[in-house]
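Appendix B: a complete holo record

For completeness, this appendix reproduces one full record from the ligand-bound portion of the collection. The bound molecule is glutathione. The inputs are the chain sequence and the ligand SMILES; the output is the full three-dimensional arrangement of the complex, encoded as structure tokens. No fields have been trimmed.
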Amino acid sequence: MATLHILGPTFSNFVRAVMLCCEEKGIDYTVGRELEGKSIGLKSEEHLKLHPHGKLPVLIHGDRVIFETAVICRYIDAAFEGPALQPDELWERTRVDQTAAEIALYIDQALVRKLLLEFAFPKGENGSVRMDAVEQAIPEARKALARVEALLGEREFIAADQYTLADALLTPMLDYISGLPIGPDLIPTGGALDQYLQRMRTRPSGIKVLKSRR
Ligand SMILES: N[C@@H](CCC(=O)N[C@@H](CS)C(=O)NCC(=O)O)C(=O)O
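The structure of the chain with glutathione bound, as generated:
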């Protein structure tokens, strides 16, 4: 049987989304920045051969190379046995696709690229966090979180009545944001988003993959 390797660092929210999908399906996989024992540098020649835009993760399944996280998640769902990560019915599935795209594009920009990365890779003097950049990012982060809360509504999962790849895309982002010093202000304890996150964290997949614990 072909091996399944997720190329990318395990701290990446997108890598974690793919790991969550594998865990939910009950699939064996490996994960890391190495391929066949060789470390693959970000945007190195080897990396660009696998992903023309130099992003991670890349999924390697035998001789198949797949990039773009949502596409990878759909591939995993279709290629392996295990609980479905997307509904069958067209409209429900389209809503999951739409929510997955919204999360991977806009919510990721607001929460991860513009806010989280300021804390994770501080670019201020002597490696300090640029608080002006953080202040600037907060209004958009709040808007993104309000949108996510509206999407969630009264539901248990973000995009359907079942766990889907949209939950896998979203929860690593929320997990990180809630672990920030400003986390409780952005995701209030006991609120709908916090309760959702706690549910996702306590699933077997979440226990394995999500790392922040408030
Ligand atoms: N659209 C891509 C985005 C992936 C992405 O931005 N990955 C980050 C890691 S979380 C990355 O590769 N960053 C390196 C860079 O942008 O140079 C996807 O959905 O897979």
